[in-house]
Hints:
It contains five helices and four strands; from the N terminus they run ααββααββα. The chain is α+β, with helices and mostly antiparallel strands. It is elongated and about 75 Å long.
Amino acid sequence: MHLIRFLQRLLAATAVAICAAGLAYATPSPSEQKVIETLIARVADQKSMRFMRNGEEHDSAEAARHLRAKYDHFKDKIVTAEDFIRLCGTRSEMTKKPYQVQTANKGTRNSADFLHEELRRVRRQAKG
């Protein structure tokens, strides 16, 4: 009887540990990884876009490098492209101020709005 209880507790503890380990190291699926990489590439391709971060203006290549660095930093917390936008493309971790982008056709707006719009385009194109 004691052996059965011991084994049940051991099994329960093992299941909890496995679940916790899985949650602690979330990573995007290959398809979401591709979407995130596409978003970063689309930022880099916006040659006329200006990216404002902590009061400083950056070009699209610098913005893409910054997003990639934040992605590398937060990768274990990102499962979806929406997670990527929320954790990497929305605001400064230091000042908590929102990032902004300035484009010729849409003026200045929060980078999260820009990235969500780009994400919708990427997902539409993927559906064909």
